[in-house]
Amino acid sequence: MTRRVLAVDGGNSKTAMALVDLDGRVLARVLGPGASPQNVGLARSLEVFEDLARRAARQAGLPAGEPIAAHTAAYLAGADLPKEEDDLRAAIEARGWSTTTVVGNDTFALLRAGTADGIGVAVVCGAGINCVAVAPDGRVHRFPALGRISGDWGGGAHIGSEALWLAVRAEDGRGEPTALLDAVTAHYGTATLAEAVERLHLGEVDFDPNALCPLLFEVAAAGDPVARAVVDRLVEEVVLLARVSLSRLALLAEPVDVVLGGGVLTGTGDVVVDAVRARLVAGAPAARVRVVDVPPVVGAALLGLDALGAAPAAEQRLRAAYREPAALAAGG
């Protein structure tokens, strides 16, 4: 059997898979819906993964019944604790896609996608927020990333909820005046925000806080101090995650990469990135802040290729394939 890697980037909003050979050639790439076990349950997650894996096999022209790959590298949102990683690995192994399987949190795929060796710090801010760090000697630092119960602040859903909360309080007098009031009211198409809140409460309108996150950044960019304070708080949190991770691994003075990814960070231009870079240098002057330039599924594939001992040229070929405009636009 040709040595192949089945790479899985399972996010909250979408799942990307790639089938890659040992030379870094992309044999198949498929996209599907988000399938985080925390959001949709383990059974539904496995249904999505199975469908995508079989689609990848067909796209690659593999004979029916042949194992899809030698190794499955699955890096998934919702794999936040060792027990969750173990449970997901056992469930995926039972599918029989490959001889060996590794399951980890999707932030590790981001770190590998943004570095040449998987060493450094990665902070992802998409629907949620997370951070992992890997030292040159293999030591790892990570956070549980379970939301407010594990001390988290940030992520698209959290920031979107803040936008609504601040706008409501501006309307009813409990908060400061802010342009978020008009922006959020317009988003819901109601005469007042109180009317929108009532409709949300009664279930007449779906509440998608992620949809309000870009709106908050737009209002902040226009100079609104209330919205700007939320953006500043996000910058502070990203810097704090990176700084604590570097400190725990004794890397504050070392020239390591700090990789930023996720739609909230990468979709706001340089607003957050430049501020993070400026603030982080005070405590970690040698850190190199960079934004990932390939989808995280590339990081999952690279971790798989690393496990199989692929040559450096394989990484170069894979990265080149995913830097094509069409691949970046598709996110997978």
From TrEMBL:
The lineage of its organism: Bacteria, Bacillati, Actinomycetota, Actinomycetes, Pseudonocardiales. InterPro entries: ATPase_BadF, ATPase_NBD, Euk-type_GlcNAc_Kinase. Residues 8-304 form the ATPase BadF/BadG/BcrA/BcrD type domain. It comes from the Bacteria. This is ATPase. Pfam families: BcrAD_BadFG (PF01869).
